[in-house]
Design brief:
alpha+beta, 3 helices
Amino acid sequence: MNKIEHIGIAVRDLKAAGDLYEQLLNTKIYKTEEVATESVKTAFLQTGPNKIELLEALSADSPIAKFIDKKGEGIHHIAFEVDDIKAEMARLKALGFVLLSDAPKPGADNKLVCFVHPKSAGGVLVELVQEIR
């Protein structure tokens, strides 16, 4: 894993949260997009090398809606950049980590993604991300 690629934050209202984080981080949202496979709308902010992804549910049964219902708004996941997501998935699986998918999926911000179940990662939802080339 090369670096922390971003920190994902679950929010109820993307517009309100975007306004708050733009003020807090003194930067503007540089990208918004919907990820249909996860039923989520995202907004990205960057300050220096650090990125924040705000996540708003698009449906009541989406993973983000369920997370907010259970835990409230807040940090949802930490994403790590990898060079070869398939190799990293195989490495983690061989070590006994539970992956939430058998293959990488298209994600936001031109990435392939795979999540590691929090129960096998010390209670933290870990996302692997690889730039789509």
